[in-house]
Model the fold of this input.
Amino acid sequence: MKQLRKACRICSTASLLVPTLLALFVLFGGQAAAAAQEEQREPISKRLSLRLHLSPETQSPLGFVVTGLTAEEQSTLKSAELSQQQLQEIMQIAVGAKEGERANPGLAGKYEFLSGGVLFQPRYPPMAGVSYELRFAPAKLPQKIRPEESDPFSRTIAVPETESAPTNVAKVFPSGDELPENLLKFYVHFSGPMSVGDSYQYVKLFDISRSGQLREVELPFLTLEQELWDQDGTRLTLLFDPGRIKRGLKPREEVGPSLEEGKTYEFVISSSWPDAHGKPLEKEHRKRFRVLAHDDIQPNHENWQLEIPAGGGKSPLRVEFAEPLDNAMLERVIHVQRVGDQVGESVEEEPADVSGEVEILNGETNWNFTPTEAWKPGTYQLVIETTLEDRSGNSIGRPFEVDIFNQVDRGATRDFVRRKFVIEE
Amino acid sequence: MLSRTLCALACVAMIGVASLASAQGLTAGMSQGTPQLTTAGPLAFGPQGILFVGDTMSATVFAIATGDTSGDANSVSINVENLNGKVAALLGAEASAVRINDVCVNPASGQVYLSVARGRGADATPVICRVTANGEVEEFALDNVNFSKASLPNAPESSEGRRGNPRMESITDIAYVQEQVVIAGLSNEEFASKLRAIPFPFEGVNNGTSVEIYHGAHGALETRSPVRTFAPFDIGGDLHVVAAYTCTPLVTFPLADLKPGSKIQGTTVAELGNRNRPLDMFVYEKGGTNFILMANNSRGMMKIATDEINSVESISSRIQGTAGLSYDTIEGMDNVIQLDRLNDNNALILVQNEDGGQDLKTVALP
Done:
């Protein structure tokens, strides 16, 4: 995925087979060696250079190559059978220090002799946008090839920035512009992977009810050390502080709720938020919404409206909810099962999952299921995990606010509810 | 960040549980190899130099036998300026592309372990680094180590691939106490904060049962609020977990209650003020009294005497300001982002500087 704007490749005309996967990517030849021969009378400090060793497949850097050694120098170095530690004392590679800073420690890694130079494969590959430094100590070379000039010298190379399309906020859920006072979370979807770890400083909530003026809401979100990202780093779950949602708790009593019924707010995502490549977002994202009353009603699957398709086709099953439900959970917690061949058959037969595509529409109030294969007439059921929540954290299994000490431990098992429907001929 | 394991040692000293004899078999059942971490998050140490690493992305806890079992933590004093810069240089990266997720002291040696992300995104490379007793920063390579692991229920199945199920249960904190690993977790979808106690050595695939924590406050029962940081603690001879919640109550509950099928109602022993986020805590003993040292984002470093933790009346009515156990704010310990107990007399803190640098410092226990 990573592509470099410019590539510093070692060109070659012949290949050398070495028993490492890495070496398969590298083709070295006599040209570089011949050039080095011609330049052998040049001082070593003029001849040596540091280049990136790139994967021919992805063009991403895998390591560094020190080139410019004469054939004699290279062969003597190789035959001296120096330890990795001794090689590091001769040609150490480190992150380049900024002016006025102390030199950085050398990178851990492995040296390997190739025909056109010495390959250094660091334990972790070079990073885009970082400058690296070769610190060469001629005085540490074996006696036979030790030059008169003994002063250490350095070479630097900057790994080009990664070329990537600008990243932006793709969508924020809930998608509606009227949200309940006890809204529990936002899902922020990005067009590409984001940097993680400092997210909360880039999101702000403003109360704009007073003549359109922006008044920042203080600490509306739950700041977590372990931010709630998906595995790709493209979706952040941003929880509102539950202490300011639940009635009777001190944060809400003293500071007030983050959102108040009747007011209008703007949720702002700063364009200065760096993506995973370190580049800021292309533009700021704003979501304006009006706040409705507190919602403490649990979703009830019995109240959902089902539009049932006819058998023999692939028309979607359409389910309409009484209120918007959690977008992320709708993707995964509702399943369709076929429970019998005959219309009206009991569900005692082993249910079979029906595969298909899910679409969530109309502000998370519609769930459409298009089967992969045409509907066969028979009895089906929707199987719904009771963890399915509305926008305020009220789930089918339990309201968000529980003020009684009731049965709470359901263990690690999931609970389900079911809703039967029939596909006619 | 969370460190608390060490209080495990404190607990051992206090009540003599988890004898050395019983700890002998803790590496039994481990296999040799390279643990495949996807992230390196919260850390905790058990006895025998066993490091627990919370892999938040795969909802798995790894137990790694570091072999780092010799040394004298009481003789250690570590101060490293610009620790994040040094770690970045070691890993061939700029400081802005490296994040120290947690800092944890190995009580067996006094050496400091760091969980690190090399890279900015969710695909950053997880690395464990170590600060030696003489202040050298090095990588603790996970090649060919003895380790075992336990995955939490509902973790995305590997067969689904990285673009599969986006639901994750993030591990927010871990601790080791009395042959159990206590894990706090939070889902990135349904609102469910879980606390689990998993027996260690890990046994098969039975990873314990999640329970939800209730704590009495404000005349109502607060449910499902995420535990921010916690530490094992002895109260009257029984091991407890003392937990700091997002809405700032300090809650205790018996560790023995944290088991499958249990219902837990915690005791709110303190309200530590509003507009405040607890970051990290541990328990220590000084002059015959046990204290909780807690770093906070806006109320500085708190030192909480626990003499009355067993007798303080549970806060069950609406209160103004703070209530229950009182605390002192420790001056000169601002901007602490990580905290652990280094030894009998000192704490180890990671301080965030305005220029972005993070300094590791040894400070006397207040």
The radius of gyration of chain B is 19 Å. Residues 1-23, 155-163 of chain B have pLDDT under 50 and may be disordered. Residues 5-15 of chain B form the longest helix (11 residues). Chain B touches chain A through 83 residues (CB under 8 Å).
